[in-house]
């Protein structure tokens, strides 16, 4: 009899597992992923947004951001907010990719991208690597920036809510703190 | 949170800005309940007090508890994202605390923006700073994005991105 009771209990164990399993304490779950559909989706969105900026397509950019979007000026620490934020950001991006000096970014990629899934908010984090050429098609060199793009889930899909790009320190300066 | 994060270097300025600063547009319709951003800002400022460097040096283990277990950080010193266990990140942050003995930087918060989406709060600041934080070179414009998640009634730091922006010509200053 006892063995039958034990057998029934064992057979139903999977049904009890949600009850028996201790819930993970809030915040204990790692929200960081280096692969998966969410990361792929946000990278695709992010590339489309930057491509629209580069092409001067403010309308597309506007459709991809939240109403309270906090934009980025890749040149300066200006915070771009309000109705004119996206248009201002587009101009900044255009100058960033093709400044008046005649240089041009001809290659870019996201290095080691990760996504931080916070539910209705997700953060796309990566180091942007770029190669720059001069007006005479000579390779000037590379540059890099650290990027955090915050997306918010809305009824019409993920929308960009906030973005930041900051200078990438190189290893020699990281340690010595020196600037040539 | 890096040594020169706007939040504790410019904290008095943030507090002064609070009554008049623009702190973002009204919550979007998908929010389940209206959010009083002034209240959230006060709660974040209280948390920022706890995140000062003094707290880090006094009790690193307690300090680490103010960070999410999966806390991540981009700061001005390291050329990669810090996604280590939070205790390790605190240890790395302490490396930079030795620069406290250097002449202080002058840093002024220029703007502050708060967005609140449910249990996630995003605080963005820009600042201008000059002087010497590290042994060479003047500093310039900086920007910070600090993201908190509310857990068990407390705002916990989950991602911090703090650093200089590129130079005026768009090319990072070398």
Q: In words, what does this structure look like?
A:
The complex is a heterodimer of chains A (180) and B (174). With 180 residues, chain A is α+β, with helices and mostly antiparallel strands. Chain A contains 6 helices and 7 strands. Chain A has a 7-stranded mixed sheet with strand order 1-4-5-6-7-2-3. In chain A, helix 3 (37-55) crosses helix 5 (85-97). The model of chain B is unreliable at 3-31, 100-105, 132-138 and 167-174 (pLDDT under 50). A 5-stranded mixed sheet of chain B has the order 1-5-4-3-2. In chain B, 41% of the residues are buried. By secondary structure, chain B is an alpha+beta fold. Chains A and B meet through strand 2, strand 4, strand 5, strand 6 and strand 7 of A and strand 1, strand 2, strand 3, strand 4 and strand 5 of B.
Give a short summary of the structure.
The complex is a heterodimer of chains A (180) and B (174). Chain A has 180 residues and is α+β, with helices and mostly antiparallel strands.
